[in-house]
Each structure stands twice: as structure tokens, then as C-alpha cells.
Amino acid sequence: MNRITIYGDDLDGNGEYPRLGWFDLDSAQHILEEDTRWNGQNMIGVISGMQINRADLYRTSGGRWVEHQDHRPEFNGPNMWRFLTDEQAREWMLKSGGTEAEKALERWFPETPEEQGPNLGGRPVVGPKLETRVDEAVLAKVDAAAKAAGTSRAAWLRDVIEAAVA
User: Phi, psi (5° rounding) for residue 75?
Assistant: First the structure.
């Protein structure tokens, strides 16, 4: 058994780090090693920022997510272990990127959408796009009818089509 004890932060500044729990590394599943990116000088880990080592994501036999970052060889820093929530693990995979992260996301978080980002405006999608060409005189009549109805050309055409096929 390779028991790893995980401690929290010293929030009070009194040198006491609360013990949050432990897990057996030998029975945990290694899920993913972080991907790397070029920072202009070196390849570094996208999660840890480390050049020599990489951060790793594990899933314990009890179903908890654990992140490991070993900064000892690189910065003479700490060997850090921390528990992650499901959402933090999902974000970890998204941020890491790469083929292996995509596979892990598909396995552990299949409901993750293909893309996600801010709404930059524009009209909401009403349905599939329908295109057609009409004579300019007909288009002018359509625009006049839409204006008289106090609606847009697209909304007026949708209403007319729906009424015709109802």
C-alpha cells in the first residue's frame, strides 16, 4: 500500500495544515498527464507551468479526483497532492488539452459540449436555415408586407410558411 495523505492550506497562518484525507496510490487509476505548450523559451506544462515534471490527474478507488504536482526537481518546491471536485477535474482535462485529454473527457464527462464560450451577440437560432431566390419585385412586396405587420422579413416569411403548411 502506498498511502498518500492530503493536507489543506494553513488558513490561520499558525503552521497547522488540516488533514483532508488519504488514498492508496497503488489502487488509484492514473487518468492523465498534463499536455505541454511552448512559452517562447521552453515547453511547459499547461496546468503546472513546470518544465521538467508534469502534473498528473488520478482517480482513487473511492471515486475521488486527485491532482499531483511535484515541484521538487524543478524549483526545489513542494510535492503537492490535492483533491479535486468533479467540476475541477473536468476543467483540468479541458485546460490540459490534447488527444489523451479528449479521450478522458469522453469517458468521464461525456456530457461536455464540443464548444463553449461567451455569447457574442447575434440572433438566436430558430431552426435550420432555408434559402431561396425571388425576383426583386417579389422581395419588395415581402418587405412591405413584413413592415406592415411590424415584424422582420425572416419572421414574416416563417409565419407565412407555417400558415401555408398547417
Answer: -120, 10
pLDDT tens per residue across span 18-58 = 999 999 999 999 999 999 999 899 999 999 988 888 899 99
Contact between residue 36 and residue 46 where contact means Cβ atoms under 8 Å apart: yes
CA 115 to chain centre: 8
Residues 36, 101: Cα–Cα separation, whole Å: 12
pLDDT digits 0-9 by tens, 101-111: 999 999 999 98
Confirm if 28 and 61 have CB atoms less than 8 A apart. yes
Number of domains forming the structure of the chain: 2
The rounded distance, in Å, linking the Cα atoms of 29 and 58 is: 6
Of 63, 82, 108, which closes a domain? Answer: 108
Is 0.70 topped by the overall pTM? no
Q: How far apart are CA 20 and CA 14, in angstroms?
A: 17
Please enumerate in sequence order all residues whose Cβ is within 8 A of that of 119, keeping only pairs 6 or more positions apart, or say none.
none
Q: What local confidence, expressed as pLDDT, does residue 15 receive?
A: 84
In a domain, residue 113? The reply is no
